[in-house]
Amino acid sequence: MSSTGVPKNSYDVIVVGNGVLGLSLGLELARRGQDVAVLGEPHRPYAGTSAAGAMLGCFGEVTTTLVASAAGRTKLELGIRATEMWPEWLGGLGPGAAEEVVSADGTTVILNAIGMAEIDDTNFRAIREELTRYEQPFEDVDPLDLEWVDAEPLSRPLRAFHIPGEHAVNTVALVLRLQDNFLAAGGTLIAAEASRVDHTGESVTGVTLTNGERLTAGAVTLAAGSRTQALLDDLPVGERMPPLVSGYGVSVLMRTFDGTTPRGVIRTPNRSFACGLHLVPRGDGEVYVGATNVVSVRPREVADMRDLVFLLQCAHRQIRMGLWESPIQKVQVGNRPISVDGFPMLGAGGMAGLWIMTGTYRDGLHLSPLVATEMAARILGGTTAHDFDLFTPIRKPIQSMTREQIVSNTFVEQFAIGPEQDWTLPVDWHHWIGMDLRPAIERWVAEIDPEITPPAELVFTSRFDPDLLKLLREYYARTRQLW
Predict the structure, then answer these.
(1) What is the mean pLDDT of residues 326-340?
(2) What average pLDDT does the segment 320-341 reach?
């Protein structure tokens, strides 16, 4: 174990997890006079931060399913508030932070010919409707005038609009700024992982590191992404929370063939259980391309060939054909923390001194200023500005959609994988496949549980992942006993 700061064995607060969320909370607590240690290996194995595109936008992530429920809209409104906080948050990271960290000027959303109307068109429209609802600026762009986009003919953009207020950041630069500010505020970075959370009765007392060393603290916050689950498994309150799984994703950094980059983010709406194809400028002729999303019970460390090939084919076909000739600088793998009901876990952990800050899925980095500020206030017993009660970690499964709606969503999202992977079918086959696939999904969700239905991506994955199926069935059985 190595430490940065003044290493010791006792702290006011220990934050387990050194991604953007953990560092942001540590910084906020340190600025409020707390003696804080943030734990985590410097290379951040398995972390979502390591592979994030870091788009600072909530409207670009809007889908019809998100805004169809009160829980989804609550999450969207937290994202809107987080967007408003980013300029001041970056300003607080020191002179020149915004210029150093922000890598993209706005976001352009494209609706292209390769998707499905039931997903791409409806989500494209939903983004525009929510921008209008919340009086946020956007402007239509003629596809022929799209800067930098040069898609292949069969994947060409049909419509597009630009959101000037949704930027992106360079995660490497952001993490360095957060670390420097945390240390300057008196915080301690400990280059080690926690193997368990220590407790006496119903009160948390600290953590034990993987090397056996024990650290004590009045409060422990678990912000280790999908790896938080291993720590919750050993706590008596863990069974009262929705389990965490991983949204494994692959992204790449590449040097463009001609040394140019777009000014802003270029992305499609979310589609096919994933976050939509997106390309983010990183400066000096480098771009980030992401990202896939595959649900996995355990975090993943390396990319599968199929995911990498799929991502690269989408990038050069749907955004810029010349990327075919661009050298790849780095293949990145990250794991997004997904609670099995699909919503964040933010707040008190059911034991004195235990706090949970995870389950943020694709929104953790974007939400970090708001979540860090709010969680710090809760830990210190201060005044809070936002209601996290819906996302309390100790909860019954959030059912934001009916079983029928989830079945329909699973069917459409699964079907949409085909067109993006170039399948061609006789026209009649679309109807024939639907006749068989939709009833099969209906039967499957009944086999998972007679009453509770997981989100569509978990329904899909559980059909070929026995570990996920077992996890869901056991959790739902516990839920009926506990609640």
Answers:
(1) 96
(2) 96
